[in-house]
User: Which sequence fits this backbone?
């Protein structure tokens, strides 16, 4: 199933069109109103969609015909969209037709109608063999894909440098986010996800841009471009609005950066990402121990979940045509394996990738330290891990906010390769970039 | 029904949230996951939605509770979202419950489930009395709404001036569109619709930004901001990329501008907009006659539809919380009346607003001239209106592209008021602005 246009506040005022990523991967056709069938027995590929009418061409201008677009994608058979239900019926209905999980309601409604099943049952009847086959192909990036992702990452680098140079105390967050947006679009792409651009980096799901940025604030920018083929970049930097970290900020920054570097050093085919996550968490606790916020043995702290007070989420995820690659297909299939199920405890349950790495995987590494007052209060009230957490000292960090540093890597035969042109990363590099005002 | 988050390439990678406009109008609550009931008999207003859990607050940071938000909107009763179907059942089901047309599939699926009807029947059972009542209220803008719209229009003016100053031959369309986007977001808003930013202004539905802008090209920019309360602006200007119109471009520009000015001069309560549209079309033909492209009597030309070769769409539409205000409720109810049905012939059928104007209406006036080669070829092949159209001369305009000029007006007790801060409008003003490069 391809995607359709998606109405915003009425049907014809649409969000920017986004094709389904698996449809893009197999068919490359970036227009609405399509679906396609691959018949592995006969080898046939059929594209279902409607040609523009003469009346439509008045409004759209001359465009290549669907048949021409299909041919360019190597598909010779094109049928009208309305022929699809009949084709499915002829194919013998559900037991021989495999479909992927629909995440848009229109496709869910259509599948229900075509297969004559209740809408609510559509997700239950998705094809696990098809999901697994698609994941196997999409997880390993070909050279042309790696090049596309690197392009997206390099645009993302430009977005971050533009923000660092543009930030000025007194500015609103949305003024900074707007600059980031401009760079992505000026490069011919768009955002691969809604920008996080905030002085409250500890708020992990933050799409509010109304705060005024003040001298002394840390700005957390999590922003990535989607390039023209729709491959994604996904980078985070945290920088001091005034151009200089405080000592407290700098100490924590270096803890996060050390964790990133230790994790990145472990990227290698055959390594389980869940183990790299654990190592990154251990590195965070080791650093926090040196600051005095953590007491005890870091490895034991990770066992006990002490790190989840500071680092509640996962170390990284797959990247590709989706910024969380193939998340619609199910995290168990994408990030885990029959031998490795996702853990369900706090912290670990947000780790989207755990499985053994293979050459060709593309992923993020993104450790962070987030001081969430509500979480501290909850743990304190439960006296949780009181022997490991220095709660009195932590009070001095209550309004610290959050720091995350995120890079994107390709797993190679011999280790990994950092994607994108150079981006300010060390505290000194970041400070220098912020001080390079426009 | 409020709106939910809308997944882009998977469920959790959402488009920027956009609340339903009617929900915003009555309840002002700009968050997902809500629906509300107004019971005109008892006077009760009930908001259905779920409070954040403690787990969610870890990710979102502390937010006002739903109860607090509801109270700020004057609603005292808040129920969990899941209580809504039961409430509807108790209320006596469909014959006493009125709902508006759903334009998002999820809401359509929910209404089907709650009322126990097939999804396909949901649109048939919308409440016309409720639609009419909502249109009556929303069509007449209160002072606070007019202020909000004027703010959106003034941001839109900044977007246009930024584009005029930013354009440089050699630039890609998306580089210019990116600047427009930045200005909208830097002002704390966003776009009220996808920007049209093109050197092919004759392509009316144009969201392609891949052309290189060259000296001599006309750039048509149709772009408006949505301000923070979600009221829309909607402006169009057409400007010469090189800073100077050619004589041919300037002649046609002045024809369009004259049509705009004549139409704007007619805006007055009691005037039918369909008649103003006809007058604007007549002005276009009068101007084209002076150039030599039209032959004959302009009023007769409009009768015969000769103007639709050059101006295929409508003169304007209502504006408010939606850029095409209330388009989801149905154009017949919004733009027409029981006494005035929408015409179905080419050109006229795209006129969204025909009815008698009332003080408090906000609308666009947007005449244009679009030279569409495919349409000319079709008319020529049919020898259509050959006595009125100077086809040989028109060949010299085949690659002229298109010009539109669009302003936004409030209908007042005594006439109309142009919205927004001053925007370059005459050919000389536009040229001067483009020549004021950054």
Assistant:
């Amino acid at each position: 199933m391809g995607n359709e246009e998606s109405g915003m506040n009425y049907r014809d005022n649409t969000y920017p069109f986004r094709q389904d990523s698996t449809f893009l991967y197999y068919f490359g056709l970036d227009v609405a109103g399509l679906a396609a069938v691959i018949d592995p027995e006969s080898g046939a590929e059929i594209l279902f969609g409607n040609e523009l009418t003469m009346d439509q061409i008045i409004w759209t201008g001359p465009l290549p015909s669907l048949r021409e677009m299909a041919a360019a994608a190597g598909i010779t058979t094109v049928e009208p969209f309305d022929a699809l239900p009949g084709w499915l019926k002829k194919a013998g209905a559900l037991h021989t037709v495999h479909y992927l999980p629909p995440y848009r309601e229109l496709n869910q409604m259509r599948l229900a109608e075509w297969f004559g099943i209740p809408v609510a049952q559509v997700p239950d009847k998705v094809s696990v063999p098809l999901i697994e086959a698609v994941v196997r192909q999409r997880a390993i990036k070909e050279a042309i894909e790696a090049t596309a992702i690197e392009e997206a990452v390099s645009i993302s680098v430009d977005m971050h440098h533009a923000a660092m140079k543009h930030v000025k105390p007194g500015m609103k967050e949305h003024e900074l986010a707007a600059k980031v947006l401009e760079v992505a679009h000026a490069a011919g792409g768009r955002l691969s996800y809604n920008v996080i651009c905030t002085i409250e980096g500890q708020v992990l799901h933050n799409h509010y841009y109304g705060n005024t940025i003040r001298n002394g604030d840390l700005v957390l920018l999590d922003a990535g471009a989607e390039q023209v083929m729709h491959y994604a970049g996904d980078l985070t930097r945290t920088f001091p609005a005034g151009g200089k970290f405080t000592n407290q900020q700098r100490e924590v920054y270096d803890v996060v950066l050390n964790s990133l570097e230790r994790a990145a050093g472990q990227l290698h085919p055959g390594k389980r990402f869940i183990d790299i996550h654990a190592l990154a968490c251990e590195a965070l606790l080791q650093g926090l121990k040196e600051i005095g916020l953590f007491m005890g043995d870091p490895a034991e702290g990770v066992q006990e979940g002490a790190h989840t007070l500071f680092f509640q989420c996962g170390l990284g995820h797959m990247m590709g045509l989706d910024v969380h690659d193939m998340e619609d297909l199910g995290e168990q299939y994408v990030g885990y394996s029959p031998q490795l199920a996702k853990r369900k405890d706090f912290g670990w349950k947000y780790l989207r990738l755990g499985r053994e790495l293979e050459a060709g995987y593309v992923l993020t590494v993104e450790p962070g330290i987030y001081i969430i007052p509500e979480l501290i209060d909850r743990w304190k009230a439960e006296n949780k891990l009181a022997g490991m957490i220095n709660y009195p000292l932590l009070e001095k960090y209550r309004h610290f906010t959050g720091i995350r540093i995120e890079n994107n890597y390709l797993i190679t035969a011999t280790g990994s390769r950092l994607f994108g042109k150079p981006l300010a990363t060390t505290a000194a590099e970041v400070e220098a970039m912020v001080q390079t005002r426009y």
